[in-house]
Structure formats: structure tokens, C-alpha cells
Amino acid sequence: LRNDAEIGRFRGVNDAVVGVSGISKLVRLSLQLGGYEAGHFRGDGLILSTATGSTAYSMASGGPILVPPMRAVVLTPISPFSLSWRPMVIPDRDEIVISVDEDQRADVLLTVDGQESFPLEEGDVVSITGRAGGVRVIKSDRRVFYEVVRTKLGWSGGPHA
Known about the structure:
Order of helices and strands: EEEEHEEEEEEH
Distance between the termini: 45 Å
Strand order of the largest sheet: 6-5-4-1-8-9
Number of helices: 2
Oligomer: single chain
Number of strands: 10
Radius of gyration: 17 Å
Shape: globular
Structural class: mainly beta
Strand content: 25-35%
CATH class: Mainly Beta
Largest sheet: 6 strands, antiparallel
CATH architecture: Sandwich
CATH superfamily: Probable inorganic polyphosphate/atp-NAD kinase, domain 2
Number of domains: 1
């Protein structure tokens, strides 16, 4: 939202990132979770990922892995300028509202699934909700989630574990 008017609508399967577009600058964001003020964030940005996206950017930034088809959103801070910000798992029924605070010293972007990027301005509001009904995913009997994760992350032991 910009000035209470919807200026864009995006659908993502993996993640959405509200963050700085360059380096060496902090973004200032305000966060509401489920209608309650959750705090003010300063850092490189916030990642919001689904279960399918939790093994990508969120995991690389210290977030937990969610097992599909878990219906939740992982909120992962990117390089927070505070030791108190930690990843959090939020029910997908709770609305997540991120507001871009005033006095930004860097350009702020919303990026969805690493594909679509949208510039944000001071005062803009990003609202993220889980999709009613979810997404249909093809599941293979030959590939079990835990085996895929174990293999990709090197949980099998050995010299590289």
C-alpha cells in the first residue's frame, strides 16, 4: 500500500524479501504480526518464507527448515543491527505487515521468489498473508523430503559434514 492505495499484488511460492537494494546501508522497518506490534527492525532486511522456500535464502540466513506441507511462514532477519532479533515461525493465518519507516538511507525493495522486484518508498506498507487453500504440489514417492535434505545438506556424515 502507498497512501492507503494498493499499488501491487504478488504471489509467491517460496519467499518474499523486504530489504536494502545495495550494501553498507540499513533499512528501517516496522513489523506487525497477527494485528499486534512486533517491533522496529534495523538491518539488511526481512525474509518471509514458506515451507518450500525455507531451505533457500532463509536457511542460509540462519532460519529453520519447515517440513512441507507445514502451513506457516518463517520470518528471518537479515543481518539485524540488534542481538534480540531471531527467526520466528508464524502461523500462515496471521497477517504479517511490514511498514517502511521514514528517514531511509538506502533504497528498499520487495522481491518475491527472487524473480519480481518492486521498489518501496518511505511509508509504504507490505501485507503478507497465507493463501487460502494453499498450492498444489506434485509429490514423488521416490523422493522423501528428509532424504533430500539429508543429502543436500551433507547430514550423512563423512569428512564434509
